[in-house]
Amino acid sequence: MMTGRMPRENITRLTRNPAEINGMQMSACERPEVGCPDVRQSMRREISLNLAGIAGIAFFAIYFASRLPDGEPVSALWACHLACLLAGGGILLRRPAFVGIGVLWLLVGIPMWFVYLLIGGPFHWASLLTHFGGLAVGCVGLEALGMPRRLWWKAMAGLLVLLAISRFVSPPELNVNLSFHVYQSYEPFAGYYVAAIVGLSLGTTVFFAVAEQRLRRVFPALGKAIPSEVGL
After folding, report:
1. How far apart are the first and last CA of the chain?
2. What is the pLDDT of residue 12?
3. How many CA atoms lie within 13 A of 186 on its CB side?
4. Given this model, what pLDDT does residue 5 score?
5. Cβ contacts of 111 within 8 Å, gap of 6 or more
6. What DSSP character marks residue 174?
7. What is the pLDDT of residue 129?
8. For the residues of 70-119, what is the DSSP string, one character each?
9. How many Å is the Cα radius of gyration of the chain?
10. What pLDDT is recorded for position 4?
11. pLDDT < 70 positions in the chain
């Protein structure tokens, strides 16, 4: 005859600690069909950052392709164009130093590009992408990755190496990275070019040091790097 009493083991199940019961249930953030708002937001940031990196590389590729019909692909060695490539590649690789050097190069290169145009240098539409698009990409990268310390001397050393490479592989008429003259076709006096390059190097080094400090205030370095996964 049934007494109507619940078996002891069932009573034990019902009176189990609620916290233990909740711990056995899947949280909303763990359910793939629901997702966690913080996780979704983080994924959107990662995708946006990766797209910015791809854009930086694409801007450089567009410029390089636009110079092929002119027979002047070596013009892509100008520091501003390579800075755009550095910024985009640094974002995808999660290397803030690459991004920071790219931004420093562009901060110097854009005003010098204006001077180049004012004295009669040819304008190429794709340069807008690498100069202003590259700077925008670099700022997006620094916003996410932060501006590292002690980049000023690395940026300057990179420019000097680039100048030497440009002098070796580019023709004098293109004057890539001022590798043959400083915006003039003759030397006012013997040794003018060397003196001008030394002066520009010293001034650029000081500018890089000051700019790095300012950028670190706007884009402080992160204590923890974002994982280097291209989440596209």
Report:
1. 66
2. 45
3. 2
4. 53
5. none
6. T
7. 98
8. TT-GGGGGSHHHHHHHHHHHHHHHT-HHHHHHHHHHHHHHHHHHHHHHHT
9. 28
10. 52
11. 1-35, 37, 185, 223-232
Beta-carbon contacts of 177 under 8 Å, excluding residues fewer than 6 positions away, are 77, 78, 79, 159, 162, 163, 166
Classify residue 7 as left (phi > 0), alpha (psi -120 to 50) or beta. beta
Which pTM was predicted?
Answer: 0.80
Instruction: Give phi and psi for 222, each to the nearest 5.
Output: -85, 145
State the Cα–Cα distance between residues 215 and 10, nearest whole angstrom.
Answer: 65
Overall residue count recorded for the chain in this entry: 232
Q: Hey, is 153 helix, strand or coil?
A: helix
Question: Which pLDDT score, from 0 to 100, does residue 191 have?
Answer: 86
**Model pLDDT for residues 152-172, shown as the tens digit of each residue:** 999 999 999 999 999 999 999
CA distance 134 to 86: 9
H or E element in which residue 40 lies: helix 37-67
Identify the pLDDT of residue 188.
79
